[in-house]
Amino acid sequence: MDSEFHSRLWARVADLRAEAGIPSLLAAVGKHGVVAAVAAVGQADVENRVPATGESVYRVGAITKSFTAAVTLLLAEGGELGLDEPIDRHLPGTPFGRVSPRMLLSHTAGLPREAPTDMWETMRGPSSAALREAFARVEFVAEPGRRWHYSNLGYAVLGQVIRAVAGRSCESVIDDMLLRPLGLNSTSWSAPDGAVVGYRLDPFVARVHREPVLDQGAIGVAGQMWSTATDLLRWGYALAGREPAVLPVGVVEQMHATHTMVDTSGWTRGWGLGLALRRHDHGIVAGHTGALPGFRSALAVDRDTGMSVAVMANVTGGIETDAVATEILAEVLREQPAQTPVEWFPALCPPHIEPMLGVWWSEAGETILRWEIDGLHARLATDPETSDTRFTEAEPGRFRAVAGRLRGELLLVTHADDGIELHWATYPLTRTPRGAER
């Protein structure tokens, strides 16, 4: 990012903050997982006149859901739960036992927005035991799987499923599987000392009032986190698939795949598994927003370049952080199109895979098998850009396509006297085109 961009970013943030009349506003751009530009304007603590900085800790609300979704998918990839199995298998006796983790992740389970508790009056969420008791009072607002309906309750249910599967809290699973491995040391489940103070605008006088700090209890896996721009941009880098050792490509694929449409008329907004998806001129922006008393936030990610934008404000309303983040990301992409180099690592191929690599023919078409950093890939020679398929080895001699063309189909390997034979989705693959041996 050059100095001119930094200047424009500061001017944009200052103008937006002044126009909205809010205590503080922060916007940061991430490149290669680190902060490439940041602008923080205003007061993190109005009463004590503490200025907001690029490292201020804000409440990020529902961005928490992207972490909860990621660990759910990691557990599913490890075989500890099934995305399409009824949750009754892990939480028996609820009135919504037939819904699946996939429905909960994509907000299509038909559950109401909130749990039937007094959290929004007392500003204290229920314990796990109290939440489980409240499950008995839940009523559906839609037939499961029929339509999108945003649900904090749905993610609270996921938290209980993870607790049942892992034998410990969902928060501790997120800490161990995501926060610590990625080095997100400024992300936490409660406000650290010196955290930004949340406010609401007075509707009649140009002043602000402190908001109470909401403790969501067992519902916190839907929105309890606090974080910094640095940590959010590192998380955005992982969500773009650039940290495969922590967040494998198969998990990233599922998070970004459209599972339902939110905007059913214009088809501009959809939902993946844990991520909101918005169509714009440069493609699809993925991410999430957060909105809790005293705070608004947004994380926008461009998967193609790995670039991301985080926006945070310490106010209940008055600014649409999602729109701000998307607009800044669009400007970045206009100036820096998809030329960001992907970090390169040597791909160490297992010996039993090597005989499979190279050119194969099927139905008069040429398919190239390659081993890459994230596993075995197949591409059509005539369309390498859009035909990429990634496999995982289900068991010896059986590879499942987990992303891309013919996803879900099996690639079978059998040994013959003159080498190996491959069948993909039952189609035979040969080393030479049919008829060439004549």
Automatic annotation (TrEMBL):
Residues 13-332 form the Beta-lactamase-related domain. It holds the Pfam family DUF7586. It comes from the Bacteria. Gene3D superfamilies: DD-peptidase/beta-lactamase superfamily. InterPro entries: AmpC-like, Beta-lactam-related, Beta-lactam/transpept-like, DUF7586. Transmembrane segments: none annotated. Residues 350-431 form the DUF7586 domain. This is Beta-lactamase family protein.
